[in-house]
Amino acid sequence: MAMLIDFHAHPGYEHDLEGLRRAFRRALAVAGYHGVDRICLNSLADWTPSPSPAAVTRGNDMVLALRDEYPERVVGFCYVNPRRERHALREIERCVVRHGMGGVKLWVACRASDPRVDPVAHRAAELGVPILQHAWRERPDRRSGESKPADVAALAARHPRAMIVMAHLTAAGAQGLKEIAPYPNLHVDIAGGEPEAGMVELAVRLLGAERVVFGTDTPIRSYGATLGKVEEARMTQRERALILGGNAARLLVRGLGR
């Protein structure tokens, strides 16, 4: 059976390591119940839009600690703030090069179309690790640095060697999928958002199954609901296997090989 990989997960809302350990222990048990083999874990520092270098480092340290406690289950992702270029590049060197994290996470510090993201994207491409980029097409409480699918498409166009996974399929919608479709280095994960009939099938039709990735956004969304998006979709077994783990395994060659 192919490996089942959650490409998009967070350790929890707590701000101390002991609290995160307790929360993640429960999440790991639920993931195991659903047959999830590996979890790609990223911190969002202190959950502020543009966190300080100290907060970013502390969050990554906690992900490294959890990864080291569960080395056969967890792939760490290095969260960085592109507004702090020197610190972001130092964190990538520390977390990815020295400590074997498997990817880079970008959230809402600045849009993916912002040139300040370019040094991060360039270094991730050099190292052969994927970037998980948050995006949301429409919402009334949008932060100024929150990317839309068109912003992520612009990043993919500027960095064709970078492997980019845009988060939140349902939030992208049909228009967002059309905006990212021309860029073969750009994928979409199904994390976040409530299940919506036909969305996974639409992504497969517009992008190909090779560019759709399973992720939950746990603890924000449940494993049962997110797995249902794939298990209940009308597709071939090959397509289902690619989405549930095959595509992630291809993107995570460095992270899974540590």
> Beta-strand level of the residues, as a percent range?
5-15%
Mean pLDDT: 95
* Low-confidence runs of at least 5 consecutive residues: none
Q: What structural class do you assign from the helix and strand content?
A: alpha/beta
Rg is 16 Å
Please summarize the sheet with the most strands.
8 strands, parallel
Instruction: Identify the CATH architecture.
Output: Alpha-Beta Barrel
Given the structure, what is the number of helices? 10
Number of strands: 8
Describe this structure in words.
- There is one protein chain.
- The chain is α/β, with parallel strands linked by helices and 258 residues long.
- It has one domain: Alpha-Beta Barrel (TIM Barrel).
- The protein contains ten helices and eight strands.
- The chain has an eight-stranded parallel β-sheet with strand order 1-2-3-4-5-6-7-8.
- Strand 6, helix 6 and strand 7 form a beta-alpha-beta unit.
- Helix 5 crosses helix 6 (169-180).
- It is globular, with a radius of gyration of 16 Å.
- The mean pLDDT is 95.
Keywords:
about 260 residues, eight-stranded parallel beta sheet, 8 strands
Please summarize what this structure is.
The protein has 258 residues and is α/β, with parallel strands linked by helices.
Secondary-structure map:
Blueprint: E1 5-9, H1 17-33, E2 38-42, H2 53-69, E3 74-79, H3 85-98, E4 103-106, H4 118-127, E5 131-133, H5 149-158, E6 164-166, H6 169-180, E7 186-189, H7 199-207, E8 212-213, H8 223-231, H9 237-251, H10 253-256
Parallel strand pairs: 1-2, 2-3, 3-4, 4-5, 5-6, 6-7, 7-8
Helix pairs in contact: 2-3, 3-4, 5-6, 6-7
